[in-house]
UniProtKB/TrEMBL annotation:
Chain residue ranges for the region called Disordered: 144-167
Single GO molecular function: oxidoreductase activity
Superkingdom of source: Bacteria
Family annotation (InterPro entries): Ald_Oxase/Xan_DH_a/b, Ald_Oxase/Xan_DH_a/b_sf, Ald_Oxase/xanthine_DH-like, AldOxase/xan_DH_MoCoBD1, AldOxase/xan_DH_MoCoBD2, AldOxase/xan_DH_Mopterin-bd_sf
Transmembrane intervals: none
Full protein name: Xanthine dehydrogenase family protein molybdopterin-binding subunit
All residue ranges annotated as the Aldehyde oxidase/xanthine dehydrogenase a/b hammerhead domain in the record: 21-135
Coiled-coil residues: none
Organism ancestry: Bacteria, Pseudomonadati, Bacteroidota, Cytophagia, Cytophagales
Length: 743
């Protein structure tokens, strides 16, 4: 790895002061003049139709502007596909306020717009809507034999590879085998910032749209298609996002509502969701998985079989990669993977942090633990015995893979060797102590993205890209990348994002932002660097007169000869000498497919967990976690560590707390609120240790980064489940592990 000045350094968040001082505004915090407020009304039934809406009483209230419903919303985007967004799966996206049909409980059916949010909310509460209910089906248990293989999926969906070897025969002939079902319920994203959109009406149909999203361009393209707006008419701005976890990948219905109302009323409008309404769209789907494993006498895997069935809506085929990982995480010649969907009367599921892998690795890695016990092997040793040096799904080598180092370094840091393998053999007073471990694999992707750089004569560099920062640290690491490649102090770099007027970038998701935007920023900096060199060579008595671009470097605010650093020009002086107020360059970056085609590109992790379970009460405390992550080069250990800490907290939550419970009689989520949908508080979180095993990898992308937003979650829930087994001797196969499952 080449010597760096900024990349790899633990820079504090550059957006930290703005967040602490309260100047970092979320979408619903832009107080534009003349703002009206919209409140969304949700359906109490899961299926059927609206038979009558009586808005007379509501409209008579002074200060109420309008009640929007399917009865008065103009015909929009006549072609179904015009509601498609970048991240839409196959099918026909839900069209808010389009017709009388009810497709899921909590479906938005009306928008009341008034002078104040209080009035809008009150008016919504007395709006009379009558429904005719039809029988609904919301229970996946009724669909066990009715699953189907999705034909089309959203971007990033890879159907499971065909079977290899003879998985049925080898499973039957195995010395030891297991065959178990693993289940987790529905989970909802609960980012700190709830969904909200402020539309500033600028006149003549022109809008500034402040939206909570993970992709300003995706929101812009959606409203452009639905409302027939030009780029200039619909600028979308999203500077700060208070968490996304996938919920903001697709435009949500408050965006539609706010734009509709602003265009119809010719007025600025804000629509926000309540915490309860955050359960009215997208979720991690309720999933049933079966894993069958068999081992040979030497502890190698004889066969791996993994099947998953999860719910989707009636109108879209939501897909995620649940089982594919089971064909690549371990070496095995006999593999069979299956993946099916079942249609229910629920909203379309949506990507949630490490979609598919977080849940697939739960099933696989608990099964691996069960298999290790059945074969009389240590769970870590069992994994190392079956280490995959090659991606057998793709039949390609990995561009880099330091999972082995993650196993060893993680185990050493954790003290795995102190583990007594027998379940229920370790205790501290009244607490049963258990050690568990698991691992995971996630994609290292890069998407096409653009960036623009502009260096002013006072030496300040502005960098722009229409990406987002959902809390991941994009502002900070892109500042570091730009500082690195133009040799400027980080204080001289202003990285700007979240504006559709900036160069195009994909949604922030898939852990691809560092690789995608990072490479674009690098390319833009190098394009400007070449211009700076040319300009420097025109300067009188330039010491760089005969230099080629390869001969120079940008360090400490100077452009200088690599081999003779004394021969230098101050970068700021170059801009001044140009006679212009600034020098600019832009660039795009896309994955180098030629370089990558022979390789499998993936990040990995290994998680070690200690739990303490109260023998009498069944309460579970995750007292220690070591998460060892191999995700290429780490641009900033601070922000990367934060991502993994967040992942571990999320994994604890997934293992022990989170589940949206459906009352199938009503087809309605019962706990759609923070009182009953549980997530951890500080008191639930104890010691978490994050360890990075860096990899040198110039195949994934020129920066050598693999992305860190999702990989840290993998294996956490499984490691906790395995530790609970080790502590108690009780094997739980259904998340979340509430104490009733241990008593
Ligand atoms: Mo992530 S689920 O791609 O935001």
């Amino acid at each position: 790895m080449s010597q760096t000045n900024y990349i790899g350094k633990a820079l504090n968040r550059v957006d930290g002061p703005a967040k602490v001082a309260g100047t970092a505004k979320y979408a619903a915090e832009f107080n534009v003049p003349g703002l009206a407020y919209g409140y969304i009304v949700n359906s109490p039934i899961a299926k059927g139709k609206i038979t009558r809406i009586d808005a007379a009483e509501v409209l008579a209230l002074p200060g109420v502007h309008r009640v929007f419903s399917h009865e008065n919303v103009p015909m929009l985007a006549i072609l179904d596909r015009s509601y498609k967004d970048d991240v839409a799966p196959g099918g026909s996206p839900f069209r808010p306020l389009h017709d009388a049909e009810i497709k899921f409980s909590l479906q938005p059916v009306a928008l009341v717009v008034a002078d104040t949010i209080e009035l809008a909310r009150y008016a919504a509460s007395i709006l009379k809507i009558e429904y005719e209910a039809a029988p609904h089906e919301t229970d996946i248990e009724t669909k066990r034999t009715k699953g189907f293989e999705p034909g089309r999926g959203k971007t990033g969906f890879t159907p499971p590879p065909p079977p290899r070897g003879n998985p049925d025969r080898e499973l039957k002939n195995a010395v030891h085998s297991i065959d178990q079902e693993y289940v987790h319920g529905t989970q909802h994203h609960n980012p700190m910032e709830m969904f909200g959109t402020t539309v500033e009406y600028l006149g003549e149909g022109k809008l500034n749209v402040y939206d909570k999203t993970q992709g300003a361009l995706n929101s812009q393209q959606y409203i452009r298609k639905v409302f027939g707006l030009s780029k200039e008419e619909a600028r979308v701005i999203s500077k700060y996002t208070g968490g996304g976890f996938g919920s903001g990948l697709r435009p949500q219905h408050q965006l539609f509502m706010a734009v509709l109302a602003a265009l119809e009323l010719k007025q600025s409008v804000r629509v926000t969701m309540t915490r309860q309404q955050m359960f009215s769209f997208g979720h991690r789907p309720h999933t049933l998985q079966t894993v069958k494993l068999g081992t040979n006498a030497d502890g190698t895997l004889a066969a791996v079989q993994h099947h998953a069935l999860h719910e989707t809506s009636q109108f879209e085929d939501y897909t995620e990669n649940v089982v594919n990982w089971s064909g690549m995480l371990y070496q095995c010649a006999n593999v069979k993977l299956g993946y099916q969907l079942a249609k229910l009367d629920v909203y379309t599921p949506q990507d949630m942090r490490a979609p598919g892998a977080a849940t697939g690795s739960f099933a696989l890695e608990v099964a691996m633990d069960e298999m290790a016990y059945a074969a009389g092997l240590d769970p870590l040793d069992f994994r190392i015995r079956n280490y995959a040096d090659r991606d057998q799904n793709l039949d390609k080598p990995f561009s880099s893979k330091k999972l082995r180092e993650c196993y060893h370094e993680g185990a050493a840091k954790f003290g795995w060797e102190k583990r007594n393998p027998a379940p229920r053999s370790m205790r501290q007073g009244n607490m049963l102590v258990g050690y568990g471990m698991a691992g995971g694999v996630w994609d290292a992707s890069q998407q096409k993205a653009g960036a623009k750089v502009s260096l002013s004569a006072d030496g300040m560099l502005t960098v722009q890209s229409a990406t987002n920062d959902i809390g991941t640290g994009t502002y900070t690491i892109m500042t570091q990348v730009a500082a690195e490649y133009l040799g400027l102090p980080v204080e001289a770099v202003d990285f700007q994002l979240g504006d559709t007027e900036f160069p195009a970038a994909p949604v922030q998701g898939g852990s691809w932002t560092a690789a995608s935007i990072g490479t674009a920023v690098k390319n833009a900096c190098e394009a400007l660097g070449e211009k700076l060199l040319k300009q420097a060579q025109k300067m009188k008595g330039s010491p760089l007169e005969d230099a080629k671009f390869e001969d120079v470097e940008f360090v400490n605010g100077q452009l200088r000869l690599r081999l003779d650093p004394g021969q230098a020009v101050v970068i700021r002086d170059i801009v001044q000498a140009s006679g212009e107020t600034k020098m600019e360059a832009d660039a795009t970056a896309a994955p180098n497919l030629l370089k990558q085609q022979g390789y499998s590109l993936h990040a990995h992790n290994a998680v070690f967990v200690e739990v303490q379970v109260d023998e009498d009460l069944g309460t579970i405390h995750v007292t220690r976690v070591v998460n060892a992550v191999a995700a290429g080069r780490i641009i900033n250990p601070n922000t990367a560590r934060s991502q993994v800490l967040g992942s571990v907290v999320w994994g604890i939550s997934m293992a022990l707390m989170e589940e949206t419970v459906m009352d199938h009689q009503f087809g309605r989520y019962m706990n759609h609120n923070y009182a009953e949908y549980h997530i951890p508080v500080n008191a639930d979180i104890h010691d978490i240790d994050v360890l990075f095993v860096e990899e040198e990898d110039d195949i994934v992308n020129p920066l050598g980064v693999k992305g860190i937003g999702e990989v840290g979650l993998l294996g956490v829930a499984a490691a906790i489940t395995n530790a609970v087994y080790h502590a108690t001797g009780r094997r739980v196969r259904e998340l979340p592990i509430m104490l009733d499952k241990l008593l």
